[in-house]
Each structure stands twice: as structure tokens, then as C-alpha cells.
Amino acid sequence: MTTTVTAQRDGAFADAGRDDTSLRRFLHGLPGVDHVGVERRAATLATRSIKKESKLHALDMAISMIDLTTLEGADTPGKVRSLCAQARRPDPDHADVPTVAAVCVYPDLAGVAVEALQGSGVAVAAVATAFPSGRSSRAVKLADTALAVEAGASEIDMVIDRGAFLTGRYGAVYDEIVAVKEACGSAHLKVILETGELGGYDDVRRASWLALLAGADVIKTSTGKVSPAATLPVVQVMLQAVRDWHRATGEHRGVKAAGGIRTAKDAIRHLVAVNEVAGPAWLTPQLFRFGASALLGDLLRQRRTQLEGHYTDRDRIGGA
């Protein structure tokens, strides 16, 4: 794939975003995904095991990559503060557990999270652009983004207009990402593809490249509101995209797997895929994230099992 992308770079990269025709030419010129091959490789990667002495390191790495998330209509400032306290000190009985990467909330609660996390090193991410549907005007989406940035969010998770993408209006999707990226200022932009609503792996690859062309710092699988969400084959296709982007441009971009990853075993499978598909350079919170609310609890339980030699029940770690 890299050879094809490099060969097209001077033409399609230069024209990207100017019109639907040039984008369509580039995106549909990408090699098709080998559906059988990607699923077979994902199944193989899922069977890989790590040595016992490496498991504690893998669990800590996964914890450090979590965007601890609450995105419910019933969210309150108190709930966000409680989540931030957990983000700062995931396991109250073990001070050596790393902090999570970020806390992800709605824009109107970003200021609460910023205040609660001050000095912790934990980032504040806010969803924007009419999350989770993405169905609103450009003006409303930009205002949504501005609200989060002004409140102090250092990361913005936007959703693409899937309707525009699926009808081939790639220029509209590109222009919107570019506009949101500009509205982010210094905040990092994660672009949610909502892969469960795309037509298949080929569309996942095209949407990944479209977001990267438009300036996404991170491409993200899903909102967590649609099923299927972060499957291992889909994440593998997205990892291929950022790997090949790096080979073509020299720039590192990240991937966020969000939705449906609930166990330590699932998280470690994804870390194996990151290492094998993209490479060890991506095994950092800057370049790989988990969007999760339930995952942290199982990671902490498995971590205690490694340290104490027996499984720890849910209540002992505060119901995380």
C-alpha cells in the first residue's frame, strides 16, 4: 500500500480537499482491503500471548492509554469530579498505578474536569460537533468545539458526517474536519469515523485517509453509541493507515479504539496489534488510546491479581 500512496502523494495530496473529484480519485485509488486476510490476521493476533513477567507492564501501559469517559445525558458536575478523582488515582491502595491519559466529557462539563484535574497531567478531552450523530450545521459544530476549547479542553473528539461520507461528498467531510481543526487551536483533534455505520473495511480505510488528509491528530473508531464499535480487524485497518501515513509523510498520527473494549484480555490483544501492525513507536498514550468506561476496572483487578496472586473482587477497588 505504501508504494501506491507515495506514488499518488504529489498529485492527490496536493489537490486533497479542493473538490470531491480529486478526493474520490485518491480515496478510491487506495488498495482494497483483503477482507479475509485482515480478519485472519486479527484472529491470529488475538491468540498471541505475552510472558507473565511482561503482563504487569502491559496492564500499566493500557491504563495509561485510557480516555476515562462519561457521556450520558444524566452527567453532573459531581459525577465528573468523581471520575477525575479516579483518573488521578485509579487504585487508591496502589500509588504506583499510572494515571489515565484523559477524561472525556461533554463540552459543557469540560471546565469542571479542567479544574478537577489541574496539576495531574491528565488531559481533558471533550466530544464536539453534535456528538454522537454529527447532524447539525457547520456553525453549530464549530460553536460546540469553541465551547470546549474555551473551557480548557486540550483534546477534541469530533464526529464526521457519515451521511456525507457515504454519499461520496468527501469534500464536505474534509472541509468540516479542516474547519474544526482550525477551531481547536492548540488542542489535539481526534476524528471519530463511527466505523459501525460505514460500509466495510474499504470504507474504513478511505475514511481513515480522508481524516488524516484533513489534519486529524488521531483517528478514532467510534462514539461508543453504535454497535459494532472497536473490533480488532477495524482497528488493524486504521493502524495500517497511520503506519502508511508515517511512511509517506514522516508524520506520526494516532489511533483511538473506542467502544466494546471491556476486559484486560481485549486491551492486551489490541496492544499486540499496535505493536505488530503499526510498530512499537505507537505504544504510547500520545499515539494509541482506549475510549472506555468499564475497561479500567478489569485492568485494575487483573493488576492486583498479578501482584497478590489471587483475583480481586469488584467492590475492593471501588466498583471501577
From TrEMBL:
Pathway: Carbohydrate degradation; 2-deoxy-D-ribose 1-phosphate degradation; D-glyceraldehyde 3-phosphate and acetaldehyde from 2-deoxy-alpha-D-ribose 1-phosphate: step 2/2. It comes from the Bacteria. Its EC number is 4.1.2.4. This is Deoxyribose-phosphate aldolase. Gene3D superfamilies: Aldolase class I. It is an enzyme of class 4 (lyase). It comes from Pseudonocardia adelaidensis. Belongs to the DeoC/FbaB aldolase family. DeoC type 2 subfamily. The lineage of its organism: Bacteria, Bacillati, Actinomycetota, Actinomycetes, Pseudonocardiales.
